[in-house]
Write a structure and sequence with these properties.
The chain is mostly helical. It is built from one helix and no strands. Helices cover 34% and strands 0% of the residues. The chain starts with a helix and ends in a 43-residue tail after the last helix. This is Membrane or secreted protein. It comes from Mesonia mobilis.
Length: 67
């Protein structure tokens, strides 16, 4: 039972940390969320499936830039 309480407490701390990060960021957005900008995740150099940016295009990933 002690392990359950410890697990719940750690999960609550994690959720609180994420909530504080979203609250502290401007407009509640995480910076650099495009996986296509990470060379370890996108080895083929494919564009982002969300915004369409290529890995060499640095900037925020948003749906407005989708062509």
């Amino acid at each position: 039972m002690k392990l359950v309480f410890i697990t719940i407490a750690l999960l609550a701390i994690a959720f609180a940390g994420i909530a504080i990060k979203i609250w502290a960021k401007k407009d509640g957005k995480f910076a650099g969320t495009c996986a296509s900008q990470n060379p370890y995740l996108n080895k083929e150099g494919e564009p982002c499936s969300f915004c369409g940016k290529m890995p060499d295009e640095v900037g925020d990933c948003d749906s407005k830039s989708k062509a």
